[in-house]
Every structure is written in structure tokens, then in C-alpha cells.
Design a protein that fits this description.
Strand content: 35-45%
CATH superfamily of the largest domain: PAS domain
Shape: globular
Number of helices: 5
Number of domains: 2
Distance between the termini: 35 Å
CATH class of the largest domain: Alpha Beta
Structural class: alpha+beta
Number of strands: 7
Largest sheet: 5 strands, antiparallel
Oligomer: single chain
CATH architecture of the largest domain: 2-Layer Sandwich
């Protein structure tokens, strides 16, 4: 396959040239990394996430769409970051404040990647935490910084 530019929102990305049925470039073939969306039903301990989250965390895309226990996501977080992230998520549930953390995950290729996650806990009318939702997106650092992590 030849390499060529894909355009999205005024930006060009290198990707294999693919022609759709109407002669248009297939944007899904582009190497565009996007923010992923996730939601956690705390009561049922099920996290539902889109395919971008699945790729970032190295999880099966169908399984993330249909829900996985939160522990499956936590095991994909770098061992050095995992205790801090678990503590901060628990604290965000307790105090109800927005969550924002940067940490490393093992992606679908087995590579360690930096991500930034933003989330918030939602409560029912009685004040009980019932839902937690947020986004996670890749964070790119110069290769010399990644090597030191």
C-alpha cells in the first residue's frame, strides 16, 4: 500500500491510501489517536468504554463496549502508577471533586503509553455514588522523557 495524507479538521495525517466505494479516503485507516470515553456503573462494577479506550488499555474492543470490571482496566495501568491511581479514584468518589490524573498504560501493541484521564463521580438523589464517567487521551512526550520513565 502506498502512503498518503488523510485530512481531518484541517490537519493531515500519514496513512495508507484506501479507496471506499465512493472513491473517498477511508479515515479509519488513518493513524489518528483520539480521546476515549468511558463510564463506570459503580454498583455493578462494570466499566463501559469505546474502542479508543480499548486500544489505549490493550483490551478487547467488543468486551469494553459490553462492559468489564474496573479491575481489568486497573491491571493495564503501569505497576508504579497503579496504587496512586486507585487511591485518587477512591478519593474522587468520596469527595465528589473532578478527577484528573496522568499515568502510564500498556496499549494494544504492548507499548507503555502516557495518558491523561479526566472523570467525575455522580450520585443519586440520596447522595450515594452510582456512576463515574470520563475521558482518557494519549499524551505524547519527547522520546528522551519516555525512556526515563
Amino acid at each position: 500500500m502506498s502512503e498518503g495524507p488523510c485530512a481531518l479538521a484541517g490537519h493531515s495525517y500519514d496513512c495508507p491510501e484506501t479507496e471506499g466505494a465512493m472513491g473517498t479516503t477511508d479515515l479509519q485507516a488513518c493513524r489518528i489517536e483520539e480521546a476515549g470515553i468511558w463510564t463506570w456503573s459503580i454498583e455493578n462494577d462494570m466499566v463501559f468504554a469505546d474502542t479508543a479506550v480499548a486500544k489505549l488499555f490493550g483490551l478487547d474492543q467488543e468486551e469494553t463496549l459490553h462492559g468489564l470490571p474496573v479491575e481489568r482496566f486497573l491491571t493495564r495501568i503501569h505497576a508504579s502508577d497503579r496504587p496512586r491511581i486507585a487511591r485518587n479514584i477512591s478519593q474522587a468518589i468520596i469527595d465528589g471533586l473532578p478527577y484528573r490524573q496522568e499515568y502510564r498504560v500498556q496499549d494494544y501493541r504492548g507499548a507503555i503509553r502516557w495518558v491523561m484521564a479526566h472523570g467525575r463521580c455522580f450520585r443519586d438523589r440520596s447522595g450515594n455514588p452510582v456512576h463515574y464517567a470520563g475521558i482518557v487521551h494519549p499524551v505524547e512526550y519527547p522520546s528522551n522523557l519516555e525512556a526515563s520513565s
